[in-house]
Amino acid sequence: MDAPAPGSGEAPEDPFALHNSASVVLDDRGMVVGWSERAQEHLGYPPGEVLGHMAFEILFDSRDREVVREAAAACVRDRGWSGVLPVLHRSGRRVGLGFRARAVIRAGSAREWFLVLAPAEEVLRWETDRSVLDGLFRRSPIGLAVHAPDLSVLRINRALARFTQLSAAEIRGRRIGDFLIGPDVETIESRLRRVLDTGAPLIFTEQPCHLRSDPDHERVVSVSAFRMQDPSGAVLGVTQLVEDVTDRYRARRRLALLNRASARIGTTLDLGRTTRELAYVAVPDLADAVSVDLLESVARGEENAEEASGSVRRMAVHSVVAEALRVMYSAGEVFHFDPRTPQARCLAEQQPILEPVLRSSPGWYFHDPERASRALGLHAHSLIVVPLTARGLLLGLLSLWRAERPEPFEEDDVTLAEEFAARAALCIDNARRYTQQQQAALTLQRSLLPQELPEYSAVEVAHLYLPADPATGVGGDWFDVIPLSGARVALVVGDVVGHGLHAAATMGRLRTAVHTLAGLDYAPDEVLSHLDDLVNRLAAEQEPADGRRQGRQIVGATCLYAVYDPVSRRCTLARAGHLPPAVVSPDGTVSLPDLPEGPPLGLGGLPFESAELELDEGSLLALYTNGLVEARGLDLDEGLGRLRGALSRPGRPLEETCAAVRNALLPDQPQDDVALLLARTRVLAPERVASWELPAEPTAPARARHLADTTLTRWGLGELAFTAELVVSELVTNAYRYGGGTPVSLRLIRDRSLICEVSDRSSTAPHLRRARTTDEGGRGLFLVAQLTERWGTRYTREGKTVWTEFPLAAAAEGPAG
Prior knowledge:
34% of the residues lie in helices and 28% in strands. The protein has 817 residues and is α+β, with helices and mostly antiparallel strands. The strands form six sheets. The chain has a six-stranded antiparallel sheet with strand order 7-6-11-10-9-8, with helices on both faces. Strand 16 (382-390) and strand 17 form a beta hairpin. Helix 10 runs antiparallel to helix 15 and helix 19 (636-647) packs antiparallel against helix 20 (654-665). The longest helix has 38 residues, at 411-448.
């Protein structure tokens, strides 16, 4: 039978097998006394040419005789020899042959040498295969097991013996279940049976295994297997290669866990969600139960100013065992750790603590013995506590428990826990810093908005204000109700572009400016013009000298400004890029008045226009920001339609209307700030208002004093008559003197205070000054300021009005001054 070709993949036959090798017999002197047909095939000599001749002379070249002598000497000394020698072919060429020589004793103690010869290349290849086979069983680091068809072990190598901690002799004839435990046995045997049945090899299949000699430690092995067959195809068994890849598996698992932690922790800047993400990443790959605790100051978003022994807040818990969640503190609970517990030591030392066997470490028991006993009842047996630190700041700690998994935590687990806790701590600190900034922005925002709205004679008001989702950041929405002269009231809603502290601060500046402009009694369109100038100045202030912007800039705002007069029932409105208000009539009809749409504040140079509405008593004005009608992804028309539906029920209390609007349009956490201001109009009764037009005559002041005295007496305010007469007389005198000869109007309004108004068609502004002792005049307005609670001037298209207010409580005390 021919030897297989090199590289054929088949195992070569033994070249020294009798049916494949040449045979030569030498006597004790080295003479050829036997010669086989195979010898003639290999060397070309027929038997007649070599029998009776000395092998040393006829078969070996003179150049090789020294090597041959050494081999012959070794053969005599050791009574046998094997190796490769060059032999002289009959054609004269040298042929390498493998030799096996053994001594044979004949009758009479004669000794002969039996030589078996084969081509050197076949011998070398066969010896290499034998060496590989020997290496697999003696020196290979990969485990090897040969199984019979019934999966009993025929043979194992030394590497597998070391892995199983049993000798080859102890394992021979036994089954896999004799040295492995658990479901691992069934998994391996089912896979080997599949190889036996199908002949399909098993290649690098990883699986866990637990040795009977060390059941508490899980190992991971990579298994390959192939079916063994004889030349006829009969199945002889299956060979299994087993490599311990526990370290490689753990390294891969560590990398995967760290990658997963990087991807899943810190997806938002919400502190609670970030800690929950940390807990969910650690279970079940590293631990069976996890708790995340932050120092109470950190949980509030503050810098850690507390001692490590201070109170902690449980932020997140997670477990594969549902009963464990009833044993552990729940999220949101605040408590202290006993100083003897591993958690307290971890906080104090800021170092990880490993408790591989809880029962032998009583310190963890002291914090809450009852909970500890219940935890042991759930088979909790191992603990790691890792501090959460970032940027040199101690934030809290992470506790990891094992109960379901039998193997205890090891130092490698501590290293892994430290690595992903460090990454998580940075995300937690980022969330804490953002929470701190968010709380500061919210505090600033709340401080800049009206806290409580007082009662007004002109309107009944209610409001709804919701800050945006923390991930978006606080915005610059604002609203206001500002009392004006003449019992009027200004209603304001605005929205600054952008989010964050800058938007909130800009909103505060605009709100302050609106109060100032309202105090000057500017018309709505004039107020917006002044605000437009202010926003332009703010934008210019943010522009650095080198022209390079730093961060996001506030570039504009929108605003709706309305003034309602309860005497005339007229509402004057102007808007700068803002949505129009909704007007609800007393019968429930909802309309969106077509107001001139001015440009947003900050564009500069474009005019604003006012519009005037006459409202029935009990009408409802709804002023709002775009966050209300564009929430939940609604388009503007759909949002306005829902708003109409929520406002259409007349006579409902305003707080209920606010709730109805919220339910109809807003999610639990809107993505943008929402401001809603509702104002139900009131009308002052005619008997509480008195007005006259006085001719421009010298008798006008006297006429005014008489009318004021008569009216106040009729209203039951006679105690104020004297003071009011002085003020009215002075104001009418100034109007007569500086009004250009036009009629003068006098109006008295009895509201929460007594309001006196004198109007003329002059736009000359009155000025308060302190007269010198030698001056004959100039004391009128000074006297007015001393006798009234407030006074001021407002301008209209027809001229101006000077107004004063007297507190009605002063009526019981007699005239002031």
